[in-house]
Amino acid sequence: MSLDHAILGFLKDRPRSGYDIKTAFDMTVRHFWPADQSQIYRTLARLAEKEWIETEIIKQDRRLDRKIYHITPKGSEELLRWLTTPVSARVVRLPKLIQIFFAANLSNDEAMQCFERFVNYYRRALTELRELPEKTLSYRHKNPPLSAKHMFFRSLPWEYGIRLAETSLQWGEEVLARLKRGDHLKGSKNNEDPPRRGSAPVSRQLGNSGKGIPGQRKKGRSGN
Q1: 144: nearest Cα among 31, 32, 24
Q2: In a 10 Å sphere around its CB, with 0-12 CB exposed, 13-18 middle and 19+ buried, how is residue 165 labelled?
Q3: Tens of pLDDT along 151-203?
Q4: Are 152 and 159 in contact (CB under 8 A)?
Q5: In sequence order, what are the residues at sequence separation of 6 or more whose Cβ sits closer than 8 angstroms to the Cβ of residue 112?
Q6: Is the CB of residue 68 less than 8 Å from the CB of residue 58?
Q7: C-alpha distances in angstroms, 107 versus 96, 133, 157, 186?
Q8: Cβ-count burial of 112 within 10 angstroms (0-12 exposed, 13-18 middle, 19+ buried)?
Q9: 91-95, 101-105, 175-179, 182-186: which has the minimum mean pLDDT?
Q10: Cα–Cα distance between 184 and 206 in angstroms, integer?
Q11: Bridge partners of 167?
Q12: What pLDDT was estimated at residue 215?
């Protein structure tokens, strides 16, 4: 499970408390792998059972004892095994795209509102991602500096998130422009493949002759 290994990764950096681990998630990977406090503590218990981590108890006067978690050699081996194992492909379900697929059932105004929400979402996401380095600056200054190699790889998911948000925003804005032009009212006819951008409908590409259409019989030919 990726949450198990994400926690092992944070503990590989240095020992941390449960609170420290939660803060690390919020300040670094929340935009693509969020985790709440209860998930983290359940996972820590599971990792301890597997002997991938061990717990150090620090006594505190007038306060609850503090637990500091350390990765074990067995945990380090498991982290390396996971890092070198291809992630299994999973079926991705995108509710927004299935809504868009059936959006012809909406009125024109409702369709416009649908894409305005889509565009606004990615505008906000892009703003948040671009502000992330500045927002996490104080957190990074409070922690031991990372090597250049660590910094390089840890910036890549952030770069990927920005690229994905930019592409999604651009696409959403293009669709809004097409809706405003009324492209959805003059698109391809029934039973035709969706036209490629800049190409003629399938029937015109084939010269309306039916040539090359599987299963279509030519006129003037008797069939037994």
Answers
A1: 24
A2: buried
A3: 899 899 999 999 999 999 999 999 999 999 999 888 555 555 555 555 444 44
A4: no
A5: 176, 179, 180
A6: yes
A7: 17, 41, 38, 15
A8: middle
A9: 91-95
A10: 23
A11: none
A12: 45
Q: In the predicted model, what is the mean pLDDT of residues 39-62?
A: 93
Report the predicted TM-score, pTM, of the whole model to 2 decimal places.
Answer: 0.70
**pLDDT the model gives residue 193:** 52
Please tell me the distance from the alpha carbon of residue 223 to that of residue 120, in angstroms, as a whole number. 58
Handedness of CA 148, 151, 157, 160 (dihedral sign): negative
Q: For residue 5, give every residue at least 6 positions away whose Cβ sits within 8 Å of its Cβ, in sequence order, or none.
A: 78, 79, 82, 83
Q: At 210, give phi and psi (nearest 5°).
A: 85, -5
Cβ(123)–Cβ(169) under 8 Å?
yes
DSSP string across 68-103:
EEEE-HHHHHHHHHHHTSPPPP-----HHHHHHHTG
Could you give the CA distance from residue 10 to residue 152 in angstroms, rounded to a whole number?
16
So what's the pLDDT on residue 75?
A: 97
